[in-house]
TrEMBL record:
Taxonomic classification: Bacteria, Bacillati, Bacillota, Negativicutes, Selenomonadales
Residues that hold (6R)-10-formyltetrahydrofolate according to the record: 67, 92-95, 109
Keyword Transferase: yes
Gene it is expressed from: purN
Described function: Catalyzes the transfer of a formyl group from 10-formyltetrahydrofolate to 5-phospho-ribosyl-glycinamide (GAR), producing 5-phospho-ribosyl-N-formylglycinamide (FGAR) and tetrahydrofolate.
CDD domains found in the cross-reference section: FMT_core_GART (cd08645)
Active site, per annotation: 111
SUPFAM superfamilies for this protein: Formyltransferase
Domain Formyl transferase N-terminal residue range list: 8-184
Residues the record marks as site: Raises pKa of active site His: 147
Pathway membership, UniProt: Purine metabolism; IMP biosynthesis via de novo pathway; N(2)-formyl-N(1)-(5-phospho-D-ribosyl)glycinamide from N(1)-(5-phospho-D-ribosyl)glycinamide (10-formyl THF route): step 1/1
Name of the protein in question: Phosphoribosylglycinamide formyltransferase
Amino acid sequence: MSKMVLGVLASGRGSNLQAILDAIDAGRLSAKIGVVISDNPDANVIKRSIEWDVPVVCIERKQYESKEAWETAIADELNVHQAELVVLAGFMRILSPYFVNRLSGRVMNIHPSLLPAFPGRNAQEQAVNHAVKVSGCTVHFIDEGMDSGPIILQEAVPLEEGDTPETLAERILHVEHVLYPRAIGLYCEGRLKVEGRRVTILEKGEGTHEN
């Protein structure tokens, strides 16, 4: 069976993209990256994509008169490359309901907290400031809210004495690099069943489009 095509949206250094590429290269993830789209022409993720011979396109917000026109350009580019699942990997723009609804159920994100705790930006700083004992990361489908979509996978990361937002972020990132490819793999195998807010992980072999 053909491998599922991923479209990756990223704005920064591309460490989660690298984790996905490594998982594909090692045979842990049966997928291929059809295109990487960045809104930032200076993003390191563009360099990573070129090094791995992955098609990469920069679509800057300032090039378009409206947010909807910009998002239409992104969605059209994803369609050109036949992306079946859209993966947000450090994409620093909030996507509108228009985009979410156009690609309903096919956009995945990873967030550096145990949602619904600490949504939005600076989640690690929020965790440190609240002096919680445990934080972590969450892979979820996006919906029209802020980090409020159906949760796929979560993993906890304890806060340690003396943690700063930076040290916590680094430890969470190591977990993200394992969790995100795992969640993408479950989708590729058709093992994610979404009913309202609940995501059920089906047993292997139950999937609707297993590779």
